[in-house]
Design a protein that fits this description.
There is one protein chain. The chain is built from 14 helices and twelve strands. By secondary structure, it is α+β, with helices and mostly antiparallel strands. The strands form four sheets. Strands 5-6-7-12-9-8 form a six-stranded antiparallel β-barrel. A two-stranded parallel sheet has the order 1-2. The chain has a two-stranded parallel sheet with strand order 3-4. The chain is globular and about 70 Å long.
Length: 443
């Protein structure tokens, strides 16, 4: 990103002075409560732009994207350190509130913008239109003139909206969805569709698990007055367990601290959650995943960005991985040292080539898969992409397949789906396919 472009971004959005009477609580503008490593959401663009204004996300960090990667996490951590917040690199309630207090978020508060209007917010609209390639302008202005009207009409045509040149609710929401603005209209839309706080995709949640659904549970418990913590997290720890026990005691449910069937039913009854558990066949209440072919799964994955929550089929233990590489199957890397330790525990306290059936939670769906527990083909202490000797798993000389540093493993693990193949001989592996069928409940 050029210095000139950086200046344009800063001058386009630094003007916002948001008052409490002009907009809803800031969290109402966002799809999620917590933004952390691996999250893919257009709101991440807003966070990155706010960090740019504050000066901790610079041109060296990279472009504005919808992916919360290492560079964004580092910038958030720098922001937190700067303002004496808990510096974990996770943008949760306290961090978002601080950004809000510093007037870093661009909010459109009018119901519509049209020809003849004046206001500093129009500069941000113009910048968005320029990024969309529908407005050619050298300097941003605070006036909604003919050029802006024509550009809005082109933007509307581009996205199948009524092309009247008036930036109304649908167009404002589209700008928000694309990560350019936060808006009153978007806040209202999010509020209307989240009368339930989220979907629960598993049958059981308990201490030690790490899953995105835990955030939904914590939100519901907070609404019930039994969860008090600075930020929501995906980790089901001591605080969450104690809060679940308080909730269960409140409603006469067995107080074991486990969010099982009875607790989930009560959360649904109270209107906090919905459920969408993917079950193709039942066997003692065990959850199965979709028996999806690898060729179809490939269409859903963005290598180097897609983050999966892996659930061990037999134990229900979960950990997080990123789909780092792979052509004939997915090569995944654990995100953190804690995730790597869980893998080791599941494979009997040591890394192993043994195949295990697993469930892959991704994009609100659950897929049947098989994973081995042996990291291979890389070295953590060597740069990714370099050709090195003595790669892990006896792979010898070759490309260093190790993109995640600090997770305590050398290389990556193999994750197979229906009809996926081995890299070595391009053959379907019978053991992996047998494990996939177990995870899918296919006889």
């Amino acid at each position: 990103m050029s210095k000139y472009w950086k200046v344009l971004i800063i001058t386009a959005i630094v003007f916002f002075a948001m008052s409490g009477e002009a907009y809803a609580a800031i969290e109402n503008y966002f799809d999620l409560n917590v933004y952390e490593l691996g999250v893919e959401n257009n709101d991440v663009k807003i966070l990155q732009r706010a960090l740019m204004i504050d000066g901790v996300y610079t041109e060296e960090n990279g472009e504005v994207t919808n992916y919360y990667g290492e560079k964004t996490a580092a910038a958030v951590k720098a922001f937190q350190t700067k303002y004496d917040l808990y510096a974990d690199g996770v943008a949760g309630k306290n961090t978002l509130a601080k950004m809000d207090a510093l007037n870093l978020f661009p909010v459109l508060v009018e119901a519509q913008y049209k020809l003849g209007m004046e206001g500093e917010e129009i500069k941000f609209i113009q910048r968005a239109l320029k990024e969309e390639g529908v407005l050619e302008i050298e300097d941003y202005t605070s006036y909604y003139g003919a050029l802006t009207k024509d550009a809005v009409a082109k933007f509307q045509e581009k996205y199948g909206l009524v092309a009247d040149g008036i930036l109304g609710s649908e167009s404002i929401i589209k700008l928000s969805d694309l990560g350019y603005v936060l808006s009153e209209e978007r806040a209202k839309e999010i509020e209307s569709v989240t009368s339930v706080m989220g979907n629960l995709s598993l049958n059981v949640y308990k201490k030690g698990m790490s899953h995105v659904d835990v955030v939904t549970i914590q939100k519901a418990l907070e609404a019930e007055g039994v969860f008090e913590y600075d930020e929501y997290t995906q980790n089901f720890g001591d605080v969450t367990e104690e809060s679940v026990i308080d909730f269960q005691e409140k409603y006469g449910i067995e107080a074991d601290g486990v969010v099982g069937a009875a607790t989930i039913d009560k959360l649904k009854e109270l209107g906090y959650v919905s459920t969408n558990v993917v079950v193709s066949r039942a066997n003692g209440g065990k959850q199965y995943g979709e028996y999806i072919a690898w060729t179809d799964m490939q269409e859903l994955i963005t290598k180097g960005k897609s983050v999966f929550t892996i659930e061990d089929f037999y134990t229900g233990q979960t950990f997080n991985v990123i789909a780092a590489y792979g052509g004939v199957h997915s090569d995944v890397e654990t995100l953190t040292l804690a995730d790597s330790e869980i893998v080791k525990q599941l494979w009997g306290g040591k890394y192993s080539w043994e195949r295990r059936p697993v469930l892959v939670h991704y994009m609100g769906r659950v897929f049947a898969a098989s994973m081995n527990g042996m990291p291979h083909a890389g070295r953590e202490n060597q740069p990714e992409g370099e050709y090195i000797s003595n790669r892990s798993g006896d792979f010898g000389y070759g490309y260093n397949f190790d993109s995640i540093k600090g997770n305590g493993i050398d290389g990556h693990f193999c994750l197979h789906f229906k009809d996926s193949k081995l890299h070595s001989n391009r053959a379907v592996d019978a053991q992996h396919q047998a494990a996939v069928k177990i995870a899918a409940g296919v006889q």
